[in-house]
# Entry
Amino acid sequence: MALFGDGGKADGSQPLKPMSDKNKEAEVKLQELARRINLGATVLNPVTESELQGVREAVKKQWEFEHAIDQRVAKAKAAEQARATQKKTQAHQSAHDHTKKSNQQSDEHGHGQSH
Amino acid sequence: MVMVSLIQLVRGYCTAHDLETRLARADAIARTVGPKLKTHLHILCGGQPEVAGEAFAETLVYIAKNLHQFRGEHDGAFWSWCYHVARTSLLQRLRKLKADRLQLMPPDEIQRYVEASTQVEALPAGTRLDLEYAMDLLQKAQPPCCDYLWKRYIMEWDYGDIAREYGLSDDAVKMRVWRCLETAVKLMAANP
# Structure
């Protein structure tokens, strides 16, 4: 593009000249036009009830999805905890059984000696 | 009345502990960004308002679905994300329609927005002249300058967004916008 004189590959290597007052004035006018268009947009393009309904449905779905995950995580945690408790109980039980058995054995042994 | 910033609304949405609060915040966010985003899409496809309408509805739903993933820290970042979502949605639609080119909003449509703004705020004669100058300047700017000026000043994209759109550096975009503005101002002076 001739305007840029560099085949459209201008980089930032050339320092920018300070903006002239005319450019600044034009910039302010363009910004005011943008502000006015946005103001007009609030009148011409308000968000309609049906568009808001779409948003509400999306939010509800997202909420349900997140809570379904939370519930699954909570269930998994509870199951894990139950397994851990069961393991602990079993370990405790087997230790108890083992102690009982060794006590019995030592009793039997003791009896044997007394004979 | 206490003004709540957009980013505060977004954070409030993410930290809401019940569905009702979330819905209320999503509503407030949609009402805040909606008019500007809708206009943004109308500007980008001035010739096809129905496409803009469909893209807008899709954009709002996408934003609502993904609000919890937004990680930005200020209003500008949120706007930038919203514009990105809107543009992506629009471009996908245009691709489906095999439309090869976007048409910017026609001058009479800009005028309609300006007139509508007077329902919210009075328009002094001096400001009206300034707006006419700005509209004329946009009309006189040649491609690709009109694109740069529209995106930077009317659609209020930041330099980074324009740079990504054109595959350029931020500095290169700054320079192009500046040169375009300068050229358009000269054209205005030469052909008042």
User: Anything to note?
Assistant: Chain A has a mean pLDDT of 77. Helices of chain A lie at 21-44, 49-114.
